[in-house]
Amino acid sequence: MKPAGKRVSAPLVTAFVITKVVVLAGGAAGGTLDRIGQGKTIKIAYREDAPPFSYKDKIGEPGGFMVDLCRDVAKKLAEQLHLPSLEVTYVPVTAADRFEAIQQQKADLLCEPTSTTLSRRELVDFSIPTFVDGASLMIRGDGPRDLKSLAGQKIGVLGGTTTEQGLRNMLQSARISSDVVPVKTHAEGLAMLDDGKISAYFGDRVILISLIKESKEPGKLKLAENYLSVEPYALALPRGDEEFRLAIDRALSHIYRSGQIEPIFKRTFGDVNPGQVLLTLYSISGLPD
């Protein structure tokens, strides 16, 4: 005959059950969609220095393609949550602290040119793709035209980004010895190129095109012709929150399938042809319901 086990008192069992229910309920209520619905506010993180995707405009307001896209996403979320509207709160971030803002719930959605990588997916989750770009070189008219010509030269790049790592990897693979100069902002890199402190500035082509317009002497700067990498962009959001990610993907899919992405694109890029690669991206990323 087995010895009788210790009996657990009814109050202890009741306390345990109540505690577990409270924990589970708290976890469910703590989801991003719940917080957004209860507060009727969504917190959008944006960069002040990443035009034309995310920046602060001349009157101090957030602007750019990704910011405009997220505004439309917020409208779609309001519809999903059966709310008349959602208030948007803007949270400025930098290239260095943007993922921390999402991890620490300072922001719900990261709306800037964020490249999707497997290592970053250890920190945050990503929506379906929002854009595709490629890295290239911004150079002076009399400067080096390709990576081989940059041997022994100084190349500027935004520090702490996949773009910086991609540049270092390319130089290493090609066995080219160049001095990589990380900068804190694109504006700093442009100023260094304008002043001849670096021979080239490495970045995503669309961003470089926008930077040339801000140069002291735009006519003296140009882009190298070749793409040196391909960068798929997406919106970063809290890791593990599948309901919120599904809601964001649903909002983006509806924007793509309805054609709403076209006026958003034109607001930033004007009548520039988006190109077949980008059109294909929106075509295949617009998931059916």
Shape: elongated
Low-confidence stretches: 1-6, 8-29
Mean pLDDT: 87
Beta percentage is 15-25%
Number of strands: 13
**Main sheet characteristics:** 5 strands, mixed
Widest beta sheet: strand line-up: 10-9-11-8-12
Alpha carbon gyration radius? 23 Å
- What is the overall number of helices? 10
Distance separating the two termini:
60 Å
Q: State the share of residues found in helices, binned by percent.
A: 40-55%
Question: Helix/strand/pairing class, anyone?
Answer: alpha/beta
N-to-C series of helices and strands = HHEEEEHEHEEEEHEHEHEEHHH
Structure in words:
With 289 residues, the chain is an alpha/beta fold. It has 10 helices and 13 strands. A 5-stranded mixed β-sheet has the order 10-9-11-8-12, with helices on both faces. A 3-stranded parallel β-sheet has the order 5-1-6. Strand 3 and strand 4 (62-63) form a beta hairpin. Helix 3 (65-80) packs across helix 8. It is elongated. The termini are far apart.
